[in-house]
Amino acid sequence: MAVRLLVYSTLLFFAMMLFLIIKEPYTINIVDQNGNLVPDIELFNAQNYQIKEGTIESIVHADRVARYKDFDKLYVINAGHKTKEGLHGTLISDEGTLQDNVMHFQTNSHYAREDGVALDGEDIFYDLKKEILSSEKPFDFTQKQSRSHGLSFVYQMKEGTISATNIHSFIQQLGKK
């Protein structure tokens, strides 16, 4: 009787070990009831400062940040930076993601600099390491009295230079009728 109980217990133990080896690891709350990802951490009124050479180079403010395993999702973004000439620029967007040092501004994005340069578009990417703003979607670029429309662009934030494809520009001459 004792040997039979030992054999059954051993078989039950091995069956449980086999089950645990085959079974996927247990995870808590990866998705909610609707199938949406659940963030690991949520922040409200978050600010991120980028400090280089003893000065604050840029500040990113978001009303809400949801941090997931591989990316961050930001809502109502206001990102300010300083160019090498000392001009201040601000990029505002309703929604964006940060993944692998690339910020993706997804909807209603607007960049403006204090000297009158402005850029409006959707699906704008900002490479944090290279400091390049780019998009493969239509955009509007305004500078003083000129306005340009194009299909895609690459904007060097520090140098203030833009290269674009398939552009149409309108230049308004001030003072002439």
Describe the protein:
Keywords: Membrane, Transmembrane, Transmembrane helix. It comes from Sulfurospirillum diekertiae. This is LPS export ABC transporter periplasmic protein LptC. GO terms for molecular function: lipopolysaccharide transmembrane transporter activity. The chain crosses the membrane at residues 6-22. With 177 residues, this protein is mainly beta. Helix content is 12%, strand content 54%. The chain is built from 1 helix and 14 strands, in the order αββββββββββββββ. It has one helix at 2-22; strands at residues 41-52, 55-67, 72-82, 88-99, 102-107, 109-113, 118-121, 124-127, 132-135, 139-143, 146-150, 152-156, 161-165, 168-171. Strands 1, 2, 3, 4, 5, 6, 7, 8, 9, 10, 11, 12, 13 and 14 form a 14-stranded antiparallel sheet that branches. A hairpin with a 4-residue loop joins β2 (55-67) and β3. The longest helix is centred in the first third of the chain and has 21 residues, at 2-22. The termini are far apart.
Low-pLDDT sequence parts: none
Number of strands: 14
Classify the beta-strand content into a percent band. over 45%
- Helix and strand sequence: HEEEEEEEEEEEEEE
- The helical percent reads 10-25%
Average pLDDT figure: 84
SS-based class: mainly beta
Number of helices: 1
Rg for CA atoms: 26 Å
Q: Kindly, what is the distance between the CA atoms of the first and last residues, rounded to a whole number of angstroms?
A: 110 Å
Main β sheet profile: 14 strands, antiparallel
Shape: elongated
